[in-house]
Amino acid sequence: MPTIQQLLKKGRTPTLVRGSSPALENCPQKRGVCTRVYTTTPKKPNSAQRKVARVRLSNGIEVTAYIPGEGHNLQEHSIVLIRGGRVKDLPGVRYHIIRGALDTSGVSDRKKGRSKYGAKMAQKGAATQKSEVILAISMRKKRSFKKKHVEDPLYKDAVVGKFINVIMERGKKTLAQKIVYEAIEVLGKKGEESGYEIFKRAIQNASPLVEVRGRRVGSATYQIPMEVRAERKYALAFRWIKRAASSKAGRAMRDKLASELWDASNNQGNAVKKKEEVHKMAEANKAFSHFRF
User: Fold this and answer.
1) Quick one: which of 49, 67, 183, 292 is 20 to 30 A from 30 by CA?
2) pLDDT given at position 216
């Protein structure tokens, strides 16, 4: 009995036997065209979907054939080669589609060399570089990196820069900067502190500490209170302040934004009200907090 390593190295040459199936007409294999490619459910106790295709053979007979392996690129009108072989949990399926030529040919005559332009080896002692090279070789997907938020040109603050991006619409960043900076100037004229300090306090007052998220447990969906990450706190506060300012009637956006920021700095306004509603909802659903684990 050959081992799996021997099979992979040499490949097993199948013995061609005349079959008694009428569709194959005493041929070990038969060519055909896919008329339909779909998935079907096998017999119990199995439940995983099986890939099958209806194939019209060159002799005019149409049969149902099983598509083995993981994934495929077959579709309607694809030319395929079938062989005999029933599938235990699919009644009526007595044929297999033969996959690509390299699937069963082994690797003995295949080129196994690697490119000389591959990844460079790390220097001796550089364990970190070596691990990065191994990680880069093993990972096929591109690694995702967190987007770095750029500071605004006036206050050199990433929070202000992010707020400008939230206010911006249709790519008009210069206009968004003008609206935010003028609103902060208006805040400075209203209070004794600088407009920048009032702006920071308003954002802090509108930032939620907890929020509720829906989670399905069995057949019911529960609203589960969860702690909010620092980045999401700012995102929610910016969103609520912008929505509250936009809903105010009349006046320029600069004045509406300044008014909402002033209210938020004094723990008033629609943005702070929205935060309190979220906190109340989280408090009401405190009994479901154990479902988050």
Assistant:
1) 49
2) 80
